[in-house]
Amino acid sequence: MYILVVKSYLTGSFPRSEQLIEATRAAIRGKTSPSAAEEAFRRDLAKLIQLQTQAGLDFFVDGQLNWQDLFRPFSELFTGIQLGSLVRWFDNNTFYRKPVVVDRVRFIGTTLERYFRHRLLPPNCAKKAILPGPYTFAAMSQNIAYQSIADLVDDIAHSLRETVTQLRESGYCYFQFNEPYICFGKTTESELNMLKDALETCTKGIGEKTALQIYFGDPSSFLDAILDYPIDCVGLDFYAMSADSLSEHDFTKELGCGCIDGRNSLLESSDDLKKLVAKIEEDVDPDSIFLCPNCDLEFLPHSIAEKKLRILSEASRAIG
Amino acid sequence: MRGLEKLFPVQEIGSLPKAPWLLSYLRGKPVTQADLDHLEKWSSISGFEAKTDVLSILSEPKTFDSERRIRNLASLFALRFLESAGLDYVYDGEANRIEMYEHPIRHSQGFEFYGHVRSFDDRYYRKAACVRKVGFREAYHLSEFENVKQNARRKVKVPVTGPYTLADWSFNEYYQNRLSGRYNDLRKLKLEAKRDFILDLAKEVIRPNLLALANAGAEWIQIDEPALTTKPEEVPFFVEAFNECTSKIRCKFSIHICYSDYRRLYPQILELKNCSQLALEFANRAGSLSDAYGQLNLLNEYGDKREIGLGVADVHVDTIETPGAIRDRIGFAVKTLGDPSRIYVNPDCGLRTRTWDIAYGKLCSIFSGAELARQQMA
Questions:
Q1: Which of A155, A165, A182, B118 is 20 to 30 A from B223 via CA?
Q2: Facing A300 at nearest CB: one of B117, B176, B184
Q3: Which residues of chain B have pLDDT under 70?
Q4: How far is residue A49's CA from residue A126's CA, in Å, rounded to a whole number?
Q5: At what angle do helices B186-200 and B235-246 cross, to 10 degrees?
């Protein structure tokens, strides 16, 4: 008898606790030292590790607690990128600093450990690194250095590949690329091909698990192209697309089932999640399913994100 | 068409920074010399007549009553500030409000605040969840309006945060839970629940507030909807909600929208039944005049004959636009729309992120630029 393998993990940044928010504010105002803020970061990460341990998640993340947005660390880790103006983050009431590409993008990575905090994760846990997808990174930047976006995507992909290589040496065994932009607006065949080539560059021969996380939009019209990408798992946002549309595709990958809504505080019921997974299993029969949030949980207050993580754990145990 | 002297009336959009002496007092901190200097300087410039009343309260311990009195004085202080910059339509810089989201939510039924959510970098805002059916608790702008109306020396326009933005910036628990089980498709469930939420806010919260303001003599209410264009598929929900909350209320209504692709509003926005003006941000946009103000052409394209509130000053930078630059922006709008009588001028958005000096400089420049544009038309 076929048994569906159900695992679980987080897919993005975790919100800071009220204590950490206060500590970072105090540091900015010069009321505490930067080291006091760093201590608060470490306390938050220790709590997040504890939550992931209790939840029995299959891969651990560091919550990207000190990332100001998905691209910010890379203005330090890569050459050629400066910080631009604040721009809305998709359709959220949240903003990011638009990277401005002023020169050739190259990996330097000297501060890698500042943003990928594997040393603070438990030594024996399976570690997952979350990275911006190469196409989303390029498309959401202001490019004043490259002749074409394809050239920029290519250099970002090579730089991400070097990032992945170093992180693998640090013990990461799962690499997730976040690509929300690919379903933002009208997606063209050339964009899909560009992303495919870039993912090939990012992942070829690394010998570890990889995932493409797509959220805030509905990629069902080009899902076949996505399923042909050189990645192991496709993560989808079932609050932005219908699970019904999966039945039209031969789902040849693992599925990241984005069923915990990172953008609403309403707590999901185990029954609803069970029904969703049963439907997916019936319709597309993937090799395995990773139950996960549809996107970052940082759109929620910290206390709600903690509750959502527990629901993820309960659902995973109940279904698995 | 208006007479030439009436062309290009200058209006504010909403917020001003909170006066530093007000913040010190509300936070229970000692009033500093810098606070007193601010009070002195701007009282002198604006002709604010109640400086001694402020000083008297600043020396009192904070009580519920003293807080109410100093907030009203801060409202008058902002009113005189705007009047002295030459504006034709004024309010009080939202001096009585926490901010445009939290204030209406805290004064309505059905919401709970869970904690902070990041806006950007290390900036956060308190985001509420709708946990019960929304309802009217009180006319939360009435007292401030009566205060402004009693003291204003210019015409008054009241800014009110709209139902779409309040819904979009809140978590939707109640309405989504109510529909749970009716849809297998989570996306559809979320969308339908959002529509219910927006419409209930329009009917149960915003409309009673608008009625209270109109009954108290408000002649012009601006509905602020900065979230409107973030989800184009939801623009019809806004149109339905706007029509629901403004129907048969005898008052001029306008909407303010900013930092958006306005194309996403059309053609649905043509269905707004009681909206006389679109007050839009433009000055923040990069490039030439036609790059920045090119979307004005949408009004021509769709035969939209409403007034425009033309954003002529960028509220995100400290550089003060010259009167000549503002004249040229108005001139471009006249050329595009053809009818100068439809054009009002304003900052792109509320000025609360600028200092008082910068805000005043920008407002005075808008006033002078409008005057230059009038001369050019003469």
A1: B118
A2: B117
A3: 1-5
A4: 12
A5: 20
Residues of A in contact with B173 (CB under 8 A): 264-266
* Predicted TM-score (pTM) of this structure: 0.92
pLDDT at A1: 46
CB B110 within 8 A of CB B175: no
pLDDT of residue A252: 86
Angle ∠(B342,B347,B349) on CA atoms, nearest 5:
110
Task: Name the helix (H) or strand (E) containing B72.
Answer: helix B64-84
Distance (Å, whole) CA B185 – CA B156: 47
Q: For B230, name the nearest residue in chain A, comparing CA atoms only.
A: A91
Report CB contact under 8 Å: B171, A28: no
- Tell whether B119 is within 8 A of chain A (Cβ): yes
Distance CA B86, CA A281 (A): 67
User: Which CATH topology does A5-319 take?
Assistant: TIM Barrel (3.20.20)
| CA separation for the pair B98, B293 (Å, rounded) | 32
At residue B121, the 3 state secondary structure works out as: coil
Please, is B125 exposed, middle or buried when counting C-beta atoms within 10 Å of its C-beta (0-12, 13-18, 19+)?
middle
* Long-range interactions of B42-46: CB distance < 8 A, separation 24+: B42/B77, B42/B81, B42/B356, B43/B77, B45/B81, B45/B84, B45/B360, B46/B77, B46/B80, B46/B81, B46/B83, B46/B84
Give the residue among A262, A184, A265, A264 at the shortest CA–CA distance from A218: A184
Question: Tell me: the pLDDT tens digits for A58-80?
Answer: 999 999 999 999 999 999 999 99
**pLDDT tens sequence across B134-160:** 999 999 999 999 999 999 999 999 999
Please list the ranges in chain A whose pLDDT falls under 70. 1-4
Strand stretches in chain B, DSSP E: 89-90, 108-120, 123-136, 155-156, 158-161, 171-172, 220-224, 252-257, 277-280, 307-313, 343-347
Measured between beta carbons, the chain A residues lying within 8 angstroms of B179 are none
Distance from chain centroid for Cα A254: 16
From A241, A243, A301, residue closest to B116, measured CB to CB: A301
Sheet holding A127-132, edge to edge: A5-8, A288-293, A254-260, A233-237, A209-213, A172-178, A127-132
Buried b (16+ CB within 10 A) or exposed e, A76-111: ebbebbeebebebbbbbbbbbbbbbbeeebebebee
Question: Percent helix, strand and coil across chain A, each rounded to 5?
Answer: 40, 20, 40
Return the closest-CA partner of residue B282 out of B338, B344, B324: B344
DSSP secondary structure, A223-253, as one string: HHHHTTSS-SEEEEETTTS-GGGGGGS---S
Would you give the end-to-end CA distance of chain B in angstroms? 14
Say what the pLDDT of residue A6 is: 87
- Which ranges of chain A would DSSP assign to H, the alpha helix? 18-28, 34-55, 74-77, 112-115, 134-139, 149-169, 189-203, 223-226, 270-283, 302-319
Measure in Å the smallest separation between the Cα of B246 and chain A Cα atoms.
26
Domain limits, chain A: 5-319
**Cβ atoms A206, A230 nearer than 8 A:** no
User: Residues B8-50: pLDDT tens digits?
Assistant: 999 999 999 999 999 999 999 999 999 999 999 999 999 999 9
Separation in Å, CA of A155 to nearest CA in chain B = 27
Give CA separation, A86 vs A25, A140, A162, B229, B316, in Å: 19, 12, 28, 17, 10
